[in-house]
Predict the 3D structure of the following.
Amino acid sequence: MANTTTYLSGGRIQGASTDTDPASFTPAGSFNVRYIVVGGGAGTGTNNGGGGGAGAFRTDASYAVTAQTYSIIVGEKSVGQVHSTVVANGGDSTFGDIVAGGGGAGGNQSIDSGLGQDASSGSGGGGTNSQAGGSSGSYGYDGGDGVGSSDHAGGGGGGSSSAGSGRTGGNGTDSDITGSTVNYAAGGGGSTQGGSVGQGGNSSAGDGAGTGNGVGGNATTTTATSSAGNGGGGGRGSTYKGGDGSDGIIILRFTTSGNSYSNVGGVVSTVGSDTLITYLVGNAGEQTANKSTITNVPAGTRYEETDTRKIFRYANDLVSGADLKTYIKMNDSSNGTASADPPTGGVVDHTASSAAGC
């Protein structure tokens, strides 16, 4: 069932957000499932931007489930940005207590000295010119260091099977869980001022911008049959955006005969004698991490969220406008300027007196 929260300003309802029930999988009894859980791929920055890190890739060919509800959240991609704008890491994907972390954002030369961002369990982002790549978590590989000298190239983002190397993104991981072999969770390529283009770790990851100024390549959009969890390619030039990552995915497969279940939010299909359930960002009934939709709210005004009594400010993303509107929660004493994290329409709690620099 959906829960709707209203937002008040000056005693009037100014908007509403709706969160739907989380996606879930509930077996009627005990049996084994095969799964892949892939975290959201990371976007990246510009000015010799490094490649975005891949989301974590986790799999088990025979995972025992029992008669209980397993909650499901699919990690969203993070979106690339331009000069001086923070890029978020990819979102985490969860199947019960199994977590595949999002990838680390690629380096943006004017943020954190151009270092690639670390990932909690996914792969690290690539660094900008001569700067270090981000460290990976338990289920990924490090981002590549930026390349100095005349190339001035960003490092490739880490992949789920190998680290970023030079300006090339790390390799992804093959799975045939859908009945066809697909490569998941590869790192994005770094940008370059000279030399060859930094390529993503698979054909679905974003390539970096080549010589001269240009935008980084976006990772291919995630679908039920495509790759997922890939990093975006680094951008070149302060006004040219870094590439977006791609959303994560969760897929369950099990023998159809004798195995009953209920499912919220997944798309059900069959592969031979098996049932396949695919969970994507935006599936009906799904609630992705830190995402809510709000309507009828003018930018730049503080509002009270009625169920929590928290005050927040609604701000347009300065780079991409209406497509990347953000909702920054603040405490009641805050009058700070809203930052642009996360850049994908999320909600973030800030306990400091100002949201500036968050």
Confidence is low (pLDDT under 50) at residues 284-294, 316-358. Residues 24-286 form one domain. The CA atoms of residues 316 and 322 lie 7 Å apart. The first strand starts at residue 3 and ends at 9.
